[in-house]
TrEMBL record:
It holds the Pfam family Kazal_2. It comes from Popillia japonica. It comes from the Eukaryota. Gene3D superfamilies: 3.30.60.30. One of its GO terms (molecular function) is serine-type endopeptidase inhibitor activity. InterPro entries: Kazal_dom (IPR002350), Kazal_dom_sf (IPR036058). The lineage of its organism: Eukaryota, Metazoa, Ecdysozoa, Arthropoda, Hexapoda. This is Kazal-type serine protease inhibitor domain. Residues 18-82 form the Kazal-like domain. Keywords: Protease inhibitor, Serine protease inhibitor, Signal.
Length: 85
């Protein structure tokens, strides 16, 4: 009985780790046609990581290539504070 519980717990943990969160839905990667326009935006992955992107379209393009469930979301216009971009 105990081994069934452990197996079920491990199986649930693995399944949960491979399912995309609501913030990062699964979607096919495609050419987003992002313009080369420099209109910087600050985005975060919700885990304390901030990154400046050249424009808001580049966030979606970047997220599409991630192999994780944690996507970046725009938090403000302009470069992230403390970055040189």
């Amino acid at each position: 009985m105990k081994s069934i519980f452990v197996f079920t717990f491990i199986l649930a943990s693995v399944a949960t780790s491979t399912i995309a969160s609501p913030e990062c839905p699964e979607r096919p990667c495609e050419d987003f046609g992002c313009a080369d326009e420099w209109d910087p935006v600050c985005a975060t992955d919700g885990n304390g990581i901030y990154r400046t992107f050249g424009n808001s379209c580049e966030i979606d393009q970047y997220n599409c290539g991630l192999d994780t469930v944690r996507c970046f979301e725009m938090v403000s216009a302009g470069p992230c504070p403390g970055t040189s971009a």
